[in-house]
Write a structure and sequence with these properties.
Distance between the termini: 32 Å
Strand content: 5-15%
Helix content: 40-55%
Shape: globular
Largest sheet: 4 strands, antiparallel
Number of helices: 18
Amino acid sequence: MRLQINKYFNSYTEAVPLAVFRLFFGSMMLASIIRFWLNGWIEKLYISPKFFFSYYGFEWLKPLGDFTYLIFMLCGVSAFFVAIGYKYRLFIISFFLSFTYIELMDKTTYLNHYYFISILSFLMIFLPANAYFSLDAWKDPKKAFQQIPAWCIDSLKLLLAIVYFYAGLAKLNSDWLLRAMPLKIWLPSKYDLPFLGDLMQQEWVHYAFSWSGMLYDLTIPFLLLWRKTRFFAFLLVVLFHVMTRVLFPIGMFPYIMIVSALIFFSPKLHHKFISKISSFFGIKKSKFDNSLRLVFQPVKRQIFLSVVAVFFIIQIFLPWRYLAYPGELFWTEEGFRFSWRVMLMEKAGYSQFKIVDSETGKRFYVDNSDFLTPFQEKQMSFQPDFMLQYAHFLAEHFRKSGHKNIEVYVENYVALNGRKSAPYIDPDINLLNFDDSFKYKSFILPFQDEIKGL
């Protein structure tokens, strides 16, 4: 067994798939940053709000006012240089730090694919994506290699397989498969789609989408890995992500997943792609075809492999942390983020906060729009850690305004996946008695139903 492992980690493959991946990744990240900027979302999401919801442990990380534009500019510039492979290591680190900073500024904007980009860019720090068809390799022949260790390519395949497979496991629940929720809520709203609008009203379509989505996520990594089914699998990838892009406003993510799937194809296809790019830009491709192997120095190799191994151990076990919490995951959302539970819930909430003077009993209600944007209020209304942070913010705000002996209560109702709205937070609990942490939030009222599955 050990012999086979050593043999694998000493095996080599063509570097061209990683070069193509780097080129697509950097280009699409640059396009994403430009799109975000041009749509005015930097101002709307990170400058205009008066308050930002922090991730636990990252409370110190906040938007920087108008200087927030500089973070996005750094991220976009880094993405461009990653794409062309110029000072690759420096700029992939710069991209990872700036993009992750953006992601951590306000968890209101959390999306699974933002998390995916962060961990993918972290992984790419340890991959020699500039070894082939890069400005680094063009300028310095000592950095040019046509072959790289096989694990460098396979690590990307493994990450994509984890994302898909865990997304499929998450769909093995009774709401998704037996109630077609939340697709039964979302799809009928697409009545204005040409050709598809009427079809989206049919209940059998909702179930077909639910079951096919689950089967797609669970099987697509294996279909892509097997050469005989790879082309068919890629067609499925294109069809699936084009359809999700048509039906749901999820930005660049579908395109990112489509081009990422190309990593599973043989180097022959990637060489054809590089040849066309070289021809278009007048680049001499033969300069990179030197048949040289990249051999990491022993210490560097050990460090890189150790970091990558720890990285994948975290990716494999982190999505299961929800098992450490009692209660229904979709209800409490404790352990929900960073677990590839993609588009499985439709939640809506109502939250009315009450400020009480514990000595006099005087009280008044808070107008959330005085402090939160509509998007922030919507997200806060059904996520307990948001409500807890907001309660502490309100207490601090009103203390500065001269109020004393403050207690904060919330009357809160939440509807989950088409169920009737139900009380969510115990209205008799002073939220200031709790601090944000990884501990179970006992002020969440029990879920009065059952969702079976993983």
